[in-house]
Design goal:
Structural class of chain A: mainly alpha
Shape of chain A: globular
Number of domains of chain A: 1
Number of strands of chain A: 0
CATH architecture of the largest domain in chain B: Up-down Bundle
Number of helices of chain A: 15
Radius of gyration of chain A: 21 Å
Radius of gyration of chain B: 21 Å
CATH topology of the largest domain in chain B: Four Helix Bundle (Hemerythrin (Met), subunit A)
CATH class of the largest domain in chain B: Mainly Alpha
Helix content of chain A: 55-70%
Largest sheet of chain B: none
Number of domains of chain B: 3
Strand content of chain A: under 5%
Distance between the termini of chain B: 69 Å
Largest interface: A-B, 35 and 29 residues
Oligomer: heterodimer
Helix content of chain B: over 70%
Structural class of chain B: mainly alpha
Number of helices of chain B: 6
């Protein structure tokens, strides 16, 4: 079994072959699924913890503060402490809530983000499922998350929660259109919905450069709509502290609150990953045609680092949005989507289709 | 037993159990949630058959669209303590008769149909490019006309919805 950090395909195949040689096909499949599930679970928890720390530090620097700095060097163990606290906290049962739906809601949100993560290509050969309809699949499963939010708000039997859930539901359902349409712009350019093919198509230049202005417009619209999809500021009116306490997850405590909290960060990470994969080439190194030496140097950086670098740069942009823009009102949010983003998006798709038809793209 | 058979049994069990729970639940939002499980499990069956496109469409339209719409309308109209009243005999007897009738017809059709026993291989699966082409083609097996008719119907419905929701000026 040869191992190379530049191409993990042979590594995967080695493990696969080894399992199928030693076990019956049934148990080999079961072991593979368990392994992949465990890897995703650990990755999910680690990334969420890191993002919460990053958010606190980024927020602190933007507000000219220091942020967490007491527990460990630069406060890096603050999160472990917070995590243990959330795990050990009492889960308060709500007397007049619909218990079944109340307990179910956080899991629907988590499952939706988990399913979306399965289709993301992390590096060459580090890709759980590579559907031929990858982008459609991600859009489809991430539309499930809003059901969890709505159920959480309703079953809490609390006016603040219900208003928060309605706001967030209306917002997510509207911005899904923009997310879908801006990704469709790139599908037209790439000619495929398969994530691996989209990444391969960017070997000689990222789609944001290949598609001229329409690709840049689609990228900006995707970032705005993705921020709204992840319920992040300036679109965090669902949990506007000053008016709605914590919105749809007001009544949740302990580990169930932690699930909602983690999901917010993971949704942000998924939005950034999809943007990095579709517009900025995913794990593909930055290549400029003609600059042989430069391309060769870029190839030395492992694909996984390229992927992480691009994703965290975009995560930082989304955090930057949150701490610099004031929160929008619900009518402003809906006006932005229906009167500006959606018409711009539709015209943008037409222009992109025209460019691809005429062969003007690179 | 292969993994495929195991998954099929799990999905079918979810579909059957939650379908029954959907129609027997007294709380309307719980019924909607059970319906959600049924629809997701159906998408799971499509994924099992490797009809990925159909599965993703099932998730987008039924789960992301219709169930969200149902939940939204329940959220706006009902309260958490609301229970549907238990149906009387006048409703239960006709319902059982109609359900049995439907089940018998479906069973007869399924049992009489001669299913091909060979498995479908990768090359025989429909590519999404073919689906896209046949959707707008005007040749034989092209769906151009139905596609346009449905588009006009949807446009009319959208205009109607906007007019209904618009504030009257008088």
């Amino acid at each position: 079994m040869d191992f190379s950090i530049y191409d993990l395909t042979s590594f995967d195949q080695g493990i696969d072959k080894c399992l199928y040689e030693n076990l019956t096909p049934f148990w080999a499949t079961v072991v593979e699924m368990t392994l992949i599930g465990l890897i995703f679970l650990i990755f999910y928890a680690l990334v969420a913890l890191f993002l919460i720390y990053a958010e606190r530090k980024v927020c602190a620097f933007m507000q000219n503060r220091v942020g967490p700095n007491r527990v460990g060097p630069y406060g890096i163990f603050q999160l472990i402490a917070d995590f243990i606290k959330l795990m050990l906290k009492e889960i308060i049962p709500i007397k007049n809530a619909d218990k079944f739906l109340f307990n179910l809601a956080p899991f629907i949100v988590v499952i939706a983000s988990f399913m979306a993560m399965a289709a993301i290509p992390f590096a060459k050969g580090l890709h759980a499922i590579d559907f031929d309809i990858g982008i459609l699949y991600v859009v489809a499963v991430s539309s499930m998350g809003v059901i969890g939010v709505l159920l959480a708000g309703w079953s809490s039997n609390n006016k603040y929660s219900l208003i928060g859930a309605m706001r967030s539901g209306a917002m997510i359902v509207s911005y899904e259109l923009s997310v879908g349409l801006s990704l469709l712009t790139v599908v037209i350019l790439a000619g495929t919905m398969q994530f691996s093919a989209i990444v391969e198509g960017q070997a000689n230049g990222w789609f944001i450069f290949k598609g001229h202005l329409p690709a840049v417009i689609a990228f900006i619209i995707y970032l705005i709509a993705g921020t709204a999809e992840a319920n992040r500021g300036p679109f965090d009116l669902a949990e506007a502290e000053s008016e709605l306490t914590a919105g749809y997850h007001t009544e949740y405590s302990g580990i169930k609150f932690a699930l909602f909290y983690m999901c917010e960060y993971m949704n942000m990470f998924i939005v950034a990953s999809i943007a990095a994969t579709v517009f900025l080439g995913g794990w593909m190194p930055l290549h400029i045609s003609g600059w042989e030496g430069f391309n060769h140097v870029m190839d030395f950086i492992p694909p996984f680092l390229w992927y992480l670098g691009k994703t965290f740069a975009l995560v930082w942009v989304i955090m930057w949005f949150k701490w610099t823009f004031p929160r929008l009102r619900i009518d402003q949010v809906l006006t932005l989507e229906w009167k500006y983003l959606l018409p711009i998006n539709l015209v943008n798709i037409l222009i992109m289709a025209f460019i691809v038809l005429m062969g003007w793209h690179f | 037993m292969t993994t495929n058979q195991l998954m099929f049994i799990i999905f079918s069990a979810i579909i059957i159990i939650f379908s029954v729970m959907t129609v027997t639940s007294r709380r309307i939002l719980r019924a909607a949630t059970y319906l959600l499980f049924v629809l997701v499990a159906t998408a799971g069956l499509y994924f099992l058959l490797q009809f990925n496109f159909l599965a993703a469409i099932q998730l987008t339209i039924y789960v992301g669209g219709i169930v969200v719409l149902i939940i939204f309308s329940i959220l706006l109209t009902s309260h958490i303590g609301d229970r549907l009243e238990a149906p009387g005999w006048k409703k239960i007897v006709p319902a059982i008769l109609v359900a049995t009738f439907g089940a018998v017809i479906t069973l007869i059709t399924v049992l009489q149909f001669d299913f091909p026993t060979k498995a479908i291989t990768g090359s025989e699966r429909t590519d999404i490019r073919e689906i896209a082409k046949s959707l707008v083609s005007t040749e034989k097996f092209g769906y151009s006309l139905p596609f346009e008719v449905i588009s006009i119907l949807l446009l009319a419905a959208m205009v109607g919805a906007i007019i209904l929701a618009k504030k009257r000026e008088d």
